[in-house]
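User: quick one, sequence for these tokens?
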């Protein structure tokens, strides 16, 4: 599945992201800009729903808090697993036949995958097509689509909003980032619609993104691992077998490895640290995306979208730092 998420075998992978970003910016320009003497109220979160023909965003807003509880209160997962094996009780769980909620999203995923198995269907060059061409089973493709929709969209949006807030509320950081992007535009280092490879070379931008994800992690689930039957020893402490071991993501990302001021949004820490210190920081920061066989496969897709967002928005909507109200 990794190849599909990374776009390695998908022609027009970045073009699809660019198309949606341009559409959103145009919508924002038409409905969200204020002018001298005229202030227009605008809800950025709602703006992405203007073409939400499947009701996905509405479902995400309503149901995601419930899903998040399952990630923290692990006993609920056990209860749901038991319920799923009891025919009489199973009907209370989301179903692909539902007309609303998570069940509706399950149904949409099933229909999208089913179309690829129709006799007249031709292979398509997209993420789903990549999965199926690699032999991903039909039921697994359906499940992965739902996971990608819920886990991928909300976490990426959260990272963008949080990082944007920290940038625009600090005039010095805002000015340095804007200067880097302006210089890249002036020297022709980036295209009119920035390419991911070009955005990766904007070091301060990448430092801002890393720092935003660090100080406001988009997901704080416990990511439990179960100790083996014989138990395990972690940093000198023996843990019996069969015990769920979780992590406090928020606490980890405020660890002293990030310096004496981990609670401060300071992108410079990613540029000023010596190689050994930077490596230690990176190892802790990578835990945001999980580790091992459950590591997030959508890292490349998410970071590509975030990088493009900040370059394009900074290029289109430019303000003087002195105009920012902190």
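Assistant:
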């Amino acid at each position: 599945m990794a190849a599909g998420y990374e776009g390695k075998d998908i022609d027009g992978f970045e073009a699809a992201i660019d198309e949606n970003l341009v559409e959103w910016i145009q919508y924002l320009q038409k409905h969200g800009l204020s002018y001298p003497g005229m202030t227009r109220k605008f809800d950025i979160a709602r703006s992405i729903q203007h073409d939400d023909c499947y009701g996905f965003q509405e479902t995400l807003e309503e149901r995601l808090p419930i899903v998040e509880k399952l990630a923290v209160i692990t006993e609920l997962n056990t209860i749901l697993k038991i319920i799923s094996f009891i025919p009489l009780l199973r009907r209370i769980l989301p179903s692909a036949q539902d007309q609303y909620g998570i069940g509706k999203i399950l149904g949409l995923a099933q229909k999208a995958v089913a179309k690829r198995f129709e006799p007249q269907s031709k292979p398509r060059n997209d993420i789903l097509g990549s999965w199926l061409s690699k032999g991903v089973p039909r039921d697994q493709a359906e499940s992965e689509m739902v996971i990608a929709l819920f886990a991928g969209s909300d976490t990426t949006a959260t990272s963008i909003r949080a990082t944007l807030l920290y940038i625009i509320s600090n005039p010095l950081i805002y000015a340095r980032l804007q200067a880097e992007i302006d210089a890249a535009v002036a020297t022709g280092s980036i295209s009119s619609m920035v390419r991911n490879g070009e955005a990766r070379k904007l070091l301060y931008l990448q430092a801002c993104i890393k720092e935003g994800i660090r100080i406001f992690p988009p997901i704080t689930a416990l990511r439990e691992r179960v100790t083996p039957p014989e138990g395990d020893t972690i940093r000198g402490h023996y843990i019996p077998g069969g015990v769920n071991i979780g992590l406090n993501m928020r606490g980890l990302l405020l660890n002293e490895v990030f310096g004496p001021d981990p609670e401060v949004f300071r992108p410079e820490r990613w540029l000023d640290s010596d190689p050994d210190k930077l490596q230690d920081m990176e190892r802790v920061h990578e835990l945001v995306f999980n580790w091992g066989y459950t590591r997030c496969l959508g890292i490349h897709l998410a970071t590509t979208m975030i990088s493009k967002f900040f370059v394009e928005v900074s290029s289109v909507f430019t303000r003087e730092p002195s105009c920012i109200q902190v």
